[in-house]
Predict the structure of t-SNARE coiled-coil homology domain-containing protein.
Amino acid sequence: MMNEELIKALRTVIKEEIEPIKEQIGSFEHHLDSMDRQMAGLGQRFDEVDRRMDDFGRRLDNMDRRMDAFEQRFDNIDERMGVIEKEVKDLKTGQEQLHKSIIQHLGDYTDRITQHVDDQNAALNKRVFVLETEIQRLIRQG
């Protein structure tokens, strides 16, 4: 009987000792459940942030593609501008050479015209001289 009383007393003591532990465990479980709910809420929030970040990443990728297209367009424009600048430079050089050539040719033609006029004038002067000489001879004879 003593054993039974001892066992009963031990059970009572153990029960009294275990009861607060059970309450604490229940409280911990309640807190853990609350934390699980909060973690689930955080998980949902992180999922939403991930979706937003993915959307943002797609937008950035789209902007990168657009910027690459703009860069390519600007490269093409730069290339065409280089060609235009070279052509303008070539035109200016050609115009300067044409201007110099025109001046040179005008000078050459002016020299030729002057020479031709001088030759014509000399020939005319010779004829006039011959006529004057003939007139003088006729005047002396007459």
